């Protein structure tokens, strides 16, 4: 009886872990694709762009929005700062 009880607990735990793993895999499949370029926005009302990042840069702040390649090039050309960690200006081949 005691062994049957523990076997049931183990089977229940295995089923729960398999369900959790399946949910994590489903979440990875449904995750939106990472943008190629990110612009970090300022704090004030206008929220002007303050820095351009490569998509997935760890140094990008929370206030950000994805931008297409052309807009990232335009922002960097107009004087918006490039991230010193991911160096989007080098990847976009924009020379100072």
Textual characterization of the structure:
The protein has 96 residues and is an alpha+beta fold. The protein folds into 2 domains: 31 residues; 55 residues, no CATH class. 44% of the residues lie in helices and 18% in strands. It is built from 3 helices and 4 strands, in the order αβββαβα. The chain is rod-shaped.
The helix/strand class is alpha+beta
Number of domains: 2
Instruction: Specify the biggest β-sheet.
Output: 4 strands, mixed
* Number of H- or I-type helical stretches: 3
Q: What Rg do the Cα atoms give? A: 23 Å
Number of strands: 4
Mean pLDDT: 90
Unreliable residue stretches: none
Element string (H = helix, E = strand):
HEEEHEH
The global form is rod-shaped
Alpha carbon gap, first and last residue: 77 Å
Tell me the strand percentage band: 15-25%
Helix content: 40-55%
Widest β-sheet, arrangement of strands: 3-1-2-4
Descriptive terms for the model:
96 residues; 44% helix
Topology:
Elements: H1 2-30, E1 37-41, E2 49-54, E3 64-67, H2 69-77, E4 81-82, H3 88-91
Parallel strand pairs: 2-4
Antiparallel strand pairs: 1-2, 1-3
């Amino acid at each position: 009886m005691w062994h049957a009880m523990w076997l049931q607990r183990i089977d229940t735990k295995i089923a729960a872990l398999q369900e959790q793993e399946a949910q994590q895999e489903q979440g990875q499949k449904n995750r939106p694709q990472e943008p190629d370029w990110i612009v970090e926005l300022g704090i004030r009302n206008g929220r002007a762009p303050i820095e351009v990042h490569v998509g997935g840069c760890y140094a990008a702040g929370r206030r950000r929005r994805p931008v297409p390649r052309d807009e990232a090039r335009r922002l960097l050309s107009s004087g918006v700062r490039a991230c010193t960690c991911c160096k989007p200006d080098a990847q976009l081949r924009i020379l100072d």
